[in-house]
Every structure is written in C-alpha cells, then in structure tokens.
Automatic annotation (TrEMBL):
One annotated GO molecular function: beta-glucosidase activity
One matching Pfam family: Glyco_hydro_1
Keywords: Glycosidase, Hydrolase
InterPro entries membership: GH, GH_1_N_CS, Glyco_hydro_1, Glyco_hydro_1_AS
Family: Belongs to the glycosyl hydrolase 1 family.
KW NAD (keyword) present: no
Keyword Hydrolase applies: yes
Organism listed in the record: Levilactobacillus brevis (strain ATCC 367 / BCRC 12310 / CIP 105137 / JCM 1170 / LMG 11437 / NCIMB 947 / NCTC 947) (Lactobacillus brevis)
NCBIfam families to which the protein is assigned, alphabetical: PRK09589.1
UniProt-recorded name of the protein: Beta-glucosidase/6-phospho-beta-glucosidase/beta-galactosidase
Length: 479
C-alpha cells in the first residue's frame, strides 16, 4: 500500500510565546506582566512569584532571548526552514500596559505590525494567541486577575483592539493558552499564569479556580463573537493542554477515575466547542456547594461564541488510579491523583514521553468535537551541548519529533482526523514556562544564553533544524 499524503496546505511551522522569547520587558511602553515577577527555578522546583519586581532577584523573562530586537533575523531562519506559519502571542501588557486603560499603547501595536509584516514577507502565516501566561500585573494587584468579572471587559477590549488592528494580517487566533492547566488548582504556577490568581490561606482553591475559569470561558466566547463581526474569515480557536489520563489498570474504578479526570481536564474545551456546560460539572458545583457567579447572559454568550477549531499542546500522557475512599464524584485533584505509567519513558524533567498518546488524543478529540484540530505545541525539553564549531547534535529531539509526527500522520491518513497544522515547541530556544530555565531547551534553533542570563544571544542551527527543514520540504513524507 502506498502511504497517503498530507493536504498541500498543511500548516507546518513552529511556536513560541511572547514572554518566553521577546525580553524588552520595559521597552516601548510595555507594562509588567505576570511573567515578569517570576524567578528562575531549578529542574525539580517551582519558580517563585515575587511581589512586583524586587531588586535582588533574577527574572529570566526580562531579557529572554531578545526576540523583540532580533526578530528579523529569527524570522529569516524560520523561512529558511520552510515555515508556512509561526505561532506566537501578543504580550497583552505591550498593548494595555496596566490592563485597564481605555486607549491602547501605539508603540506596542506597532511592534506586532512589524513582526507580522516580517512574517508575510516570507509568506509565513502568523498564528496568534491572545493570552499566553502574560496578563498585565496591574490587573493582578488591583483586581485579583480573573477573580474579578471586570477582567472579562479588559480582556475583550484587548481582543477587539488587536482584531481590528491586525484584521488583514492575522487569520488564525487562539484565545487562552492551555486554559485547562489550572484544573491543577493546588499548584501556584497554574493559577497564577492562567488567571493571575494567588490563593490565600483559608480559601477553597478549587472554587476560586472554577469561578476564574468561568469568567475566562465567557471572555473567550465574547472574543470569538467580536472576532467574527470584525472579519468573518477569522478562525478563532480554543487551546488546551492535551495530556490524556489513562487508567492505571483495568479495574472498573480506575477506568471511571480516568474518565472523570478526562472530564475535568477537558470541560474547558467542551464548553468552548459545545457552548454549554457538561451535566456532570453543573451537578458537581451543586454537590460541592460552589456558589458561582454564572449568569443567564454568560450562558447565552457561551452558546453564541463557540470556536472554529481546537488548538492543543501535546507533550506527555498521564495515568491515574482510584483510591479506596473516593467520594461519589470521584473528585479529581491533579496534584494528588496521578500515578507513574511504567510503560512509557520519562524525560529528564519527569515528563512521560508517549507518541502513541498523540494519535489517541487526535482520535478522542475528533470523536468528541468534530472540529479541525491544530497541534500548536509538541516538543521535548532537554540539555543541549553546543560544540566548538557551533553545532548541536540533538538526535533525541529529532527522535521525539519524528515519533510524534509519525503518529499524527497515522491519525490523519489511517483514521481520517482533520489536522490543520503542526507547530513544534519551540521554533527557537525559549525561557521555560514552569522552571524559568534556558537550559531546558526546546528549540530547533540554539540561542547562546545560560540560566543566569549570561551568553552572547547568538543563534545556531541545531541538527533538528536541518531535519525539520526536510520534513517540511517533503510535506511530512521524509521523516
Ligand atoms: P515548560 C505544563 C504541562 C504541559 C505544558 O513547558 C505546559 C505546562 C506548563 O509548564 O506548558 C506549555 O516550559 C506552555 C509553554 C511551555 C511549554 O508547554 O514548562 O504552553 O509556554 O513553555 C513547555 O517546560
């Protein structure tokens, strides 16, 4: 049998996020964002969140890899690889430095004009996330981030501003990056980066998370509606972290626990795609006594603002097992309820590498959502060695991407799953979101910068750069 081929307009590219590459954190009128008050951590601990910018702390996102200044040369390298698209985000605090202004910051808007123009010079389609872990910090201190209903208005004003400004430069949008990370509500990182929230002693973190998440799905739905009035050709997607949760055994209790975990992780996309809450969850709110501010107008917005496609990241799979004392809800707490899957290897950071899980996920989402799917992140964080002649022999990264693209192609050609594109994480080395490390490298382009901020910022092509160039040139046939 001959292998079926991918569609000719398949969107091969690469992904980054503004706060992880741009730097220039106080240039061009930019305000502080949540990413600007997070320190660097080691491989196995979490970044600290400081009260504003403190004098004796190091904040790796402040300079990142200086994409703000070096983007023309970087986009040229993306073009050399053959990118059809480039996923990045708009740093909200470049456009609304405090978040609650009425008028946008022109210098911030002009930067993204220049960046998107540079992409179009090489026929590279920008794929743009509105909110990728970079809410204006002032919204955190003044309003408690998405604790406040007012933040819906600030977000949709920002969305409307950039939809209008880039009406003819951007077609593919994503609203909130990995909106479902915060289902892990006991982890400070996820609630802070998703929602600008720091849980206070005595608070019910789960209830706080569900309220903020509700405001965010409403904000997303309003943004979708605004987008379609500004340009009916806009394609606006939701974005979830797709880590499937497998049952640890075939015990029915474990299988049900895994089902509940999947429901909990993916109610976000259920709402964003279907326009309504799943029944288990509205019942769950009642059982738990969560008295949430959910209005009839909100529910109407959710119905009217369903997304055009579903974007997702895929890094790893999870597994779970029921305990002996599950409540009737089999309540899922991601901090406590995951177990190690003995059948898959782990990365140096403990991420369970599972290429087949990508095919599983594509089928699962296709059956559930019946929408085009876009793999907007997939990759592995690893320590790279730069040789004396400026090469990086990152066969482990090639192997990871190879095995995942192979599973994506099987899902497309054998299972008929409609996949719009594939943008590995990351196009170029970035500051890791969860650890703040530069040494947890993801890029196919190496940046000479170290965890402590030293380094020349010079760029070098890794072996994976040339490999991915061939993959794109052959439209995925030459893996
Ligand atoms: P880092 C958790 C699980 C899956 C993806 O992650 C995640 C996270 C948050 O850490 O984040 C996404 O840099 C995110 C990117 C991030 C990338 O995955 O923590 O959208 O911003 O850099 C990799 O190793």
């Amino acid at each position: 049998m001959t292998k079926k081929t991918l569609p000719a307009d398949f969107l091969w590219g690469g992904a980054v996020a503004a706060h992880q590459v741009e730097g220039a954190y106080d240039v061009g009128g930019k305000g502080l964002s949540v990413a600007d008050v997070m320190t660097a951590a080691g491989t196995h601990d979490e970044r600290r969140i400081t009260a504003g910018v403190q004098p004796n702390e190091f904040y790796p996102n402040h300079e990142a890899v200086d994409f703000y200044h070096q983007y023309p040369a970087d986009v040229k390298l993306f073009a050399e690889m053959g990118f059809k698209c480039f996923r990045t985000s708009i740093a909200w605090s470049r456009i609304f430095p405090q978040g609650d202004e009425v008028e946008p910051n022109e210098a911030g808007l002009a930067f993204y004009d220049r960046l998107f123009d540079e992409c179009h010079k090489y026929h590279i389609e920008p794929v743009v996330t509105l909110s990728h872990f970079e809410m204006p910090y002032h919204l955190v201190t003044k309003y408690g981030g998405f604790r406040s209903r007012q933040t819906i208005k600030f977000f949709t004003r920002f969305a409307q501003t950039v939809f209008e400004r880039y009406r003819d430069k951007v077609t593919y949008w994503l609203t909130f990056n990995e909106i479902n990370n915060q289902i892990n509500y006991d982890r400070a990182f996820t609630l802070f980066t998703n929602s600008g929230i720091q849980v206070q002693p005595g608070e019910n973190a789960e209830a706080v998370m569900y309220q903020a998440s509700h405001y965010e799905v409403v904000a997303s739905a309003i943004a979708v509606q605004i987008a379609h009035t500004i340009n009916p050709d806009f394609q606006v997607g939701a974005m979830v972290a797709f880590s499937p949760v497998y049952p640890a055994t075939d015990k029915p209790r474990d299988v049900f626990k895994a089902q509940r975990a999947m429901q909990a992780r993916f109610w976000y996309s259920d709402v964003q795609v279907e326009g309504q809450y799943p029944t288990w969850l509205t019942n769950y709110f009642e059982t738990k006594g969560f008295d949430l501010d959910i209005t009839a107008a909100d529910l109407a917005n959710l119905r009217q603002g369903t997304v055009d496609y579903l974007g997702f990241s895929y890094y790893m799979s999870f597994a779970t097992a029921a305990t002996d004392d599950e409540d009737d809800q089999f309540s899922y707490n991601e901090t406590d309820d995951l177990v190690t899957n003995q059948f898959v290897p782990q990365s140096a950071w403990g991420w369970q590498v599972d290429p087949q899980g990508l095919r599983y996920g594509l089928n699962w989402m296709n059956d559930r959502y019946h929408l085009p799917l876009f793999i907007v992140e997939n990759g592995i964080g690893a320590i790279d060695q730069l040789t004396a002649t400026h090469e990086v022999h990152d066969q482990y990264r090639i192997d990871y991407l190879h095995d995942h693209i192979d599973q994506m192609e099987l899902a497309m050609t054998e299972d008929g799953v409609p996949v719009m594109g594939y943008t590995p994480w990351s196009a170029i080395d970035i500051v890791s979101a969860s650890t703040g490390q530069l040494s947890k490298r993801y890029g196919v382009i190496y940046v000479d910068r170290n965890d402590d901020g030293s380094g020349s910022l010079a760029r070098y092509r890794k072996d994976s750069f040339y490999w991915y160039q061939r993959v794109i040139a052959s439209n995925g046939a030459d893996l």
